[in-house]
Design goal:
Structural class: alpha/beta
Oligomer: single chain
Distance between the termini: 70 Å
Radius of gyration: 31 Å
Number of strands: 21
Strand content: 15-25%
Modified residues (4-aspartylphosphate): 62
Pfam family, one: GGDEF
CATH class of the largest domain: Alpha Beta
Protein name: Diguanylate cyclase
Largest sheet: 8 strands, mixed, barrel
Domain EAL: 318-566
Keywords: Phosphoprotein
Length: 566
């Protein structure tokens, strides 16, 4: 970019007429203050290459190149170098096109027959200056836009910012049929901090609280400060029990250690939380706050420093389920009334079974499917206990599978993080090689920064076990998990697979995930294949493995299962 009149202007001329290019070279070569450093290219293709090599301050562009139309020429140059000013060279017969190009973003145009050296030099200089001013204005406007949706103290979204996000997320959740949860919290007795230590100390506490909360959220979650010591969190694609778990993580993150003030004093901070879904509320922040504030008031009423929900899980236990509820809790806590089913994983090319995924089911009425009983267990703080029982049952059920067949067994991220790796390994039979097992971790269940899983997954890999990240592509999946965990398999969620044969958007999303898998050196397993046409298009994408109802539903596994006959 031009900094002073004494510097040289680097000009790239893209012009197919060699004689005219030579004429310009002679005219501009005599210019001083500033002097001109001219380089030329005779086609769009070579011109685009020179942009990267020469890094010009300004581009002189002819519209009648042999390898491109005028419109394509301008678009190609602006796409590859949007910040470099472009001046069009126009003949008398295409001046209208040049005018349209200026309206489309180029800086100026010149008629070839009316150009003198000094005129051209002045126009090039002014084009550079105008471009610089435009860029400064764009940067300033973008900064103003960011300031309009950002809380200046904490760097979080402000009320306006979260309103924009909320409108978009509610529409997405309705379209996708997924849940959207909201957490409202404020700091307990925060007025005492301001009164005792001053408002600057209070601002420091708010900034520290914001930092601690961000550390305990997923990259797909949103957090905003909407006033004073009040914050709101949006959790896309989360069920109520998962939201309660996130609320507890946030509560513990805030209260786990005192905040040390710059003055040397310290203050212990706690906070009260309200949690609700966004169903049956107006598409506005005020309407949502009115609903979730009821839950927040419950937390304040019953002693603060707690998470309350709507519907209130504790009240449902006490008022509606009573002894039956406690009986169900004890059943799951003891690992009772659980059984195992299996679903084959097929190699799509050879149509041979490559492995089986072993899954848990419950015999408790109303909680037969894993989504139901795992959510119940999570709400009652026994998820890891029950998940370990399920893991143990699946390992046992898989023992009679032929050794060359891979056994896929699921674990919740929290179970993996909170269970000693030795305890997981001790269950595996000595007679079966460790590489015959693949531990599946659901990407949907990873909450917050996934780095806490790196160590246990590395330990399992060191023992020879394989790792799969499951439900990838669920909503706006976090590829950070894939990069950090480096799985052997990536299982694409069924929502990206069902109907992919006639959905261009799913095809584009699927190809992006395939590119990520290729970059990580991971194999892809497509879940939820139910239609022959989806199966056929997946084969054209060179997907290695698949599973789904196209080949049958999961079947019960017991001591009488004859794997050779399947």
């Amino acid at each position: 970019m031009l900094q002073s009149d004494q510097e040289r202007i680097k000009v790239l001329l893209i012009e197919d007429d060699a004689a005219y290019a030579k004429l310009l070279q002679n005219r501009l070569g005599r210019e001083v203050n500033p002097s001109i450093d001219l380089r030329s290219a005779q086609s769009l293709h070579t011109g685009l290459e020179e942009i990267g090599k020469f890094k010009p301050d300004v581009i002189l562009l002819d519209l009648t190149l042999p390898d491109s139309s005028p419109k394509e020429t301008v678009e190609a140059v602006k796409n590859i170098s949007p910040k470099i000013p472009v001046v069009i060279l126009s003949g008398l017969d295409n001046e209208d096109i040049a005018v349209k190009a200026v309206r489309g973003g180029v800086e100026d145009y010149l008629v070839k027959s009316e150009m003198e050296g000094k005129t051209l030099s002045r126009i090039l200089k002014h084009a550079i200056e105008r471009s610089r001013i435009k860029q400064d204005i764009d940067i300033a406007n973008e900064r103003l836009k960011q300031l309009s949706v950002t809380d200046p103290l904490t760097g979080l979204l402000n009320r306006r910012g979260i309103e924009q996000v909320l409108s978009r997320e509610i529409q997405w959740s309705k379209r996708e049929g997924s849940n959207l949860l909201v957490i409202l919290l404020d700091l307990d007795d925060f007025k005492n901090v301001n009164d005792t230590f001053g408002h600057s100390a209070g601002d420091f506490v708010l900034t520290e609280v914001a930092r601690r909360m961000k550390e305990n959220l997923r990259t797909t979650d949103y957090i905003a400060r909407i006033g004073g010591d009040e914050f709101i969190v949006l959790l896309p694609h989360a069920r109520l029990a998962e939201g309660a778990h996130v609320g507890e993580k946030l509560r513990e993150g805030i209260s786990q250690a005192p905040v040390f003030l710059p003055s040397g004093n310290s203050v212990q901070i706690t906070s009260s939380f309200g949690l609700s879904d966004t169903s049956n509320v107006p598409m506005s922040l005020d309407g949502l706050l009115e609903k979730v504030e009821e839950a927040l008031r419950k937390s304040k009423k019953f002693g603060k420093n707690r998470v309350s929900t709507i519907p209130n899980i504790e009240e449902e236990k006490e008022n509606h389920l009573g002894n039956k509820y406690l009986s169900i809790v004890n059943t799951f806590r003891g690992g009772d009334q659980l059984h195992v089913v299996a679903q084959p994983i097929w190699e799509l090319g050879s149509h041979q079974v490559n492995g089986y995924e072993f899954l848990s089911r419950s015999d408790v009425e109303g909680f037969e499917m894993p989504d139901d009983f795992f959510e119940f267990c999570s709400a009652n703080n026994i998820l890891n206990i029950v998940d370990y029982f399920c893991y143990s049952n699946c390992v046992k059920a898989s023992q009679s599978v032929p050794k060359e067949i891979l056994r896929h067994i699921n674990l919740f991220p929290s179970t993996l993080a909170n269970t000693r790796v030795e305890r997981l390994l001790d269950i595996l039979p000595v007679a079966i090689p460790k590489f015959s097992y693949c531990i599946e971790i659901s990407e949907q269940q990873i909450i917050g920064e996934p780095s806490y899983l790196v160590a246990p997954i590395k330990a399992l890999k060191n023992e020879g076990l394989l790792i799969a990240v499951d439900t990838v592509g669920f909503g706006r999946s976090s590829f950070e998990s894939l990069i950090l965990l480096e799985p052997n398999f990536i299982k694409i969620d069924r929502r990206f697979i069902d109907g992919i044969s006639h959905d261009d958007a799913k095809v584009r999303s699927f190809k992006r995930i395939m590119n990520v898998a290729s970059g990580l050196g991971a194999e892809v397993i497509a879940e939820g294949i139910e239609r022959r046409e989806d199966y056929e298009i997946l084969k054209t994408f060179k997907v290695t493995y698949g599973q789904g109802f196209l080949w049958g539903k999961p079947f019960l596994v017991n001591e009488h299962t004859n794997w050779d006959s399947l």
